[in-house]
C-alpha cells in the first residue's frame, strides 16, 4: 500500500540549531516524487522542497535540504539554523501515478515543530 | 508568484444548507484540487480536476460535488451540509501532474 509515515508528532529545537524531520514512504512505483510542505498556524500550506525518485543529488532550497535515502525509503527534511518563524506543522507527501496521466499526492500526518528562543 | 485564493477564511452554515466554496488560481494551471483537513486524519482528497469540465473523485467524494466551468475557477459544493462536514477545506493547483501544488489560505467551515 502507498503510505507516508511521519513518526514524530512533535519536535522542539533551539533557535539557530539544525533539526531533522523524519519521513518514510512505502511504494511499489518506480517513478514518484517527494515533497515537503509547511503549514503555519494561519493555515496556508507552503511548498518547501521537492525530490524526484530518479534524482541522484539531494535537493536543497536555502535552509532546507532533503536527505533522500532511496534504499531505505526515507526522505527526511533538514532545516538548518532554525528561526522562530519555522514553528509550524510540516507535512511530507509523495506523488504517484493516478487517473490516467495524472498524479496524486499521498500525505503524512505531519510533525509539529516548535522553535524555542 | 502563484496565487490561489479561496473565497472565505471562515464560514458558518446550518445543517441542510447548500454550501459553495470557491477557489481561483491565477497561473493558468491545469490541475486543481479540493482537500479537507481534520486533526489526526491529515489531508484527504475530495475531488480533482485536470481540465475544464473534467473531474475525478478523490478519496472522500461522498456528500460533495465540484464544478469547473473556467480554467481558473474550481468550486466545491456541499449539496446538503451536515455537521460531519465541519472541517478545514484547502484548495490547491498545480501546473501538471507531479509538479508542486500551490495552496489557498484555507476555509474553516463550521456546520451547526
**Rg from Cα of chain A:** 14 Å
Q: What global shape of chain B is seen?
A: globular
Derived structural class of chain B: mainly beta
Per DSSP, the total helix count of chain B is 0
Q: Tell me the total number of β-strands of chain A.
A: 12
Global mean pLDDT of chain B: 94
Overall pLDDT of chain A: 94
Question: Overview of this structure, please?
Answer:
The complex is a heterodimer of chains A (117) and B (112). Chain A has strands at 3-5, 10-14, 19-21, 24-26, 33-39, 46-52, 60-61, 64-69, 74-79, 88-98, 102-107, 111-116. Chain A is mainly β and 117 residues long. In chain A, a hairpin with a 4-residue loop joins strand 8 (64-69) and strand 9 (74-79). Chain A is globular and about 45 Å long. With 112 residues, chain B is mostly beta strands. Chain B contains no helices and 11 strands. In chain B, the strands form 2 sheets. In chain B, strands 2, 4, 5, 6, 9, 10 and 11 form a 7-stranded mixed beta sheet that branches. A 4-stranded antiparallel beta sheet of chain B has the order 1-3-8-7, with no helix packed on it. In chain B, a hairpin with a 3-residue loop joins strand 4 (31-38) and strand 5. The radius of gyration of chain B is 13 Å and the shape is globular. The interface between A and B is medium-sized, with 23 and 24 residues.
